[in-house]
Amino acid sequence: MSSPAVNATAQSISAGDPFPKSGSGEAQARAGSPILRPAVCPLDCWDTCAQLAEVKDGKIIRVTGNPNHPITHGYICDKARHFHEKVYSPLRVRKPKQRIGPKGSGEFADISWAEALTLIATRFKEIIAPYGPEAILPFSYAGNLGLLSFGSLDRRFFHRLGSSRLARTVCSSAGKSALLHTYGATQGTDPEGIVHSRYIIVWGLNVLTSNLHQWEGISAARRNGAKLVVIDPYRHETARRADLHLAPRPGTDAALALGFMNVILSKGLEDRDFIAVNTVGFDALRERVREYPPERVAEITGLPADLIRQVAREYATTRPSLIRAGYGLQRHTNGGMTMRTISLLPALIGAWGQMGGGFLLSNSGAFPVNNAALERPDLLKGNPRTINMNHLGDALLAAEPPIRALYVYNSNPAVTAPDQAKVLRGLAREDLFLVVHEQVITDTARYADILLPATTHFEHTDLHTSYWHLYLQLNEPVIPPVGESKSNTEVFRLLAQTMGFAEPAFQDSDQDLLRQALHWDHPFLQGITLERLRRERFVRLNTPSQPHLPFADTAPNAEPKRLSFPTPSGKIELYSAAMAATGLDPLPAYVPLAESRDGSPDLAARYPIALVSPAAKNFLNSTFGENPTLQKQEGGGPVIFLHPEDAAPRGIADGQLVRVFNYRGSFVARASVGDTVQPGVAVSPTIWWNSFTPDGTSANQTTSQRLTDMGAGATFHTNLVEVERF
Ligand SMILES: Nc1nc2c(c(=O)[nH]1)N[C@H]1C(S)=C(S)[C@@H](COP(=O)(O)OP(=O)(O)OC[C@H]3O[C@@H](n4cnc5c(=O)[nH]c(N)nc54)[C@H](O)[C@@H]3O)O[C@H]1N2
Ligand SMILES: Nc1nc2c(c(=O)[nH]1)N[C@H]1C(S)=C(S)[C@@H](COP(=O)(O)OP(=O)(O)OC[C@H]3O[C@@H](n4cnc5c(=O)[nH]c(N)nc54)[C@H](O)[C@@H]3O)O[C@H]1N2
Ligand SMILES: [Mo]
User: For residue 94, what are the CA distances in angstroms to 148, 454, 481?
Assistant: First the structure.
């Protein structure tokens, strides 16, 4: 993935085309010899891989990585290599179903699509007549990240219906808000430039688990002499392979970043020219930073002051230096401010504007997606309320006016939403009409009144961006729909028809939607067409340089050091007037977690262990949770990493089952006692289906519905618990 900077307009991606074009090879596939067909992994993951599906006798028998894709490089993660097992899983939903047993029992009778659609439309109308459309709530997230599957006809349908709106905030909204307030865009360093980095800080990201293909670039950089530092309370497989691992107390990273700034400024290591030309608010920031000398930061984070000085010095004096931040950091009550604070470090040392330097959280903003054309907010009827998806539990139990129908797709909130006990009580409500559109009978699907069969990406068309790399990819079906399954777009087309919605927007085909999905006249899409995507499958965005230098000022007379930021000031906002105007601290700051030693001493006395429940290696959130091989690889059931100093006084030995609990709920996990965490910290990789855990519960029993400081995001990792022998 390490091509030197070349002019993208002159370079065509050497896609090759070893596989038959879509639509051809039918006879061959039926005749018994396997053929390879291209697909795009649709999962909510950084890597957005180019897959090859091996199809024999009309069935997928193997899934691998496309060797010609410059990022996928011919290999995919272990879980996605099991993707075809999901397609043919015994739990696959093949026909529409109606509930015949008690809520949650998963007992259904098959019905026809016509019956299912009529039942849904009739019930929606019965609810709307007395209560209004706000009594209906859609619930979806990124089970499929394709532009069509994620948000297109579904949004049009619910806009037109006038249902309650959903704030889709479970994953990335705090970090997004931080980047927008600081840089004006969700963009960062091009991952294909990482090979040029000489100092890489991976901050709150388990690369080998959730961003596998980035390891290649990091490894190449290290072969060129780069140093890898990992900052994470969890000594995961990536941390174990780093040159240096710093394990701060969870939620103290903003203090750590301010400590680094303190060292940089007190030693005069800042880049004054860069600061003068490209930032606003430096004098105010300098005052703030004085409050964070290394000794104080050591006290807050639990890290030695000398180590803080060392890393700050190395980071500031090695060029190019990169901070690669993960999404985990933002899932704290102070997550927005933490992300903003960390993202400002490269601004102080002028690490932007160099190949391989800068900061990368997300590159989603690099893709010119035309959300308005896909979602058609102009169809919105009235001004319905917005419900934050992290509040699903409270919303189902106590929203006023009540939610009487919930339509779930692309998501499995029974296990992925916080405060699970409340979510499950809500889903079990006798008077709630629950529609679930799913590929497999998930824990959520078991509660459905009407369960609809969904296609997988191997069975439908979609267009894929990435929030990490800069390749646009087209996915076309490699097999016909399994059973009677239908795509999200097809279901909402049919539902709109059944409801009697006459607007032409509901007649758009998937091909129409592909044409509407992007601003095709954007410079990054110059020379890129749907026809070319059909031929080549993946095309790199046509950025001015390759690797892309985000924020580079490409104007003919641009000052050499001057970059261009789409913020109100046009500069990096060390001080944000926009934040001040909304009552937020305009400067970076450390605020203790709402649940922590310093933030809530009473709670910390009762529940002294800070539990982080990050991404598990063998699942993608809860996706693949039904796969027996992957369950086994993930330890056969939930695991919790504990430090010996916490385990011993509780009489907990390595390998024993423990109950993890707080005032919200509890779950059972197997203890793994060792050096993976510091005292007072525990880690339990997620997300297990309740149907496959020892006591039918999982980690989100303990997490809270509290929101982040910015972006109204989820706070899964701000979570104090106690642990006892089971
Ligand atoms: N295998 C696998 N890959 C995945 C996923 C998956 O479930 N499994 N999920 C996908 C999705 S939807 C997303 S959003 C991403 C999520 O993947 P990441 O962005 O990696 O997010 P998390 O796994 O939540 O957390 C990443 C790391 O942040 C650390 N962390 C938590 N709190 C703190 C803190 O206070 N300080 C510091 N320094 N670190 C902290 C955790 O210990 C963890 O190692 O990955 C995607 N990829
Ligand atoms: N404790 C804890 N909880 C977490 C997290 C954490 O780190 N810790 N991470 C959070 C994060 S970052 C995220 S993003 C959320 C994710 O939580 P969810 O949004 O619930 O994501 P998944 O668990 O992957 O479930 C997606 C479901 O969508 C279905 N699906 C896939 N494609 C399609 C399709 O085309 N149509 C339809 N109708 N269905 C489809 C899949 O079969 C799958 O069951 O979880 C959050 N929950
Ligand atoms: Mo996520």
Answer: 21, 8, 9
